Amino acid sequence: MNIPSVTAQEMKKIDDLMVFEYGMSILQMMENDAHSIAHIAKTMLEGKIYGKTIVVCAGKGNNGAGGLAAARHLYNCGAYVKIILTHLENELGETAKIQLRPLKALNMQIFKPDSSHFDQLVELKSADLIIDALLGYSIQGDPHSEVASAIYAINKADRPVLANDIPSGMNPDTGAPYHPIVRADVTLTLALPKKGLLAPQSQELVGKLYLADIGIPHDLYRYLRLEVPKDLFAQNSIIAL
Q1: Is the pTM of this model over 0.85?
Q2: Superfamily for 8-240?
Q3: Measured by CB atoms within 10 angstroms of the end CB, which terminus of the chain is less buried, N or C?
């Protein structure tokens, strides 16, 4: 199957069209993302998710919000979920704030940002799975401050890592690594693969690559003149690339 890849600018256009032309909210798409993350997490844990420790490292934007939404689904599956935030709650984007509220109501363990302590967190080192939801396709330049510290800590923990959309610290268009960058075992990209994920230089950082349906109607792609197979997700909402 010939699946087109997109640049960050094209993906932003797709997101905008979904909201302003098709009336679908970012939160609706995010819920689809969260379901898919939870599904891949189960696969990585060989279906044995009950009682497993999963740590979600979440940034302040929509990528982080998707990770927080996934945390709720994983909690409902019986996993022991912990959250590491890179920003204070009042610094989070609106979608991340919304996704954080039910996690607080569930009394989920939430660690606030402290760059000096990231690499000392036993939560990362003892995790059965780490979910990288720090940075998405809108990244521009090297990660810094607490986000950079979290990336270093994720890599240092040497645990299985699932990246949400792209590994944090990767140029989504070229696949070139910024510094630092998450080394993922599995990457779940959304709607269409980002061009950088398919670059030869990015393969050892991306790991196994999956594509998830987040509810983009096929008709939308005509605005970008993208030839997307109509049966792309006919068999499954998640496909291996």
Answers
A1: yes
A2: YjeF N-terminal domain (3.40.50.10260)
A3: N
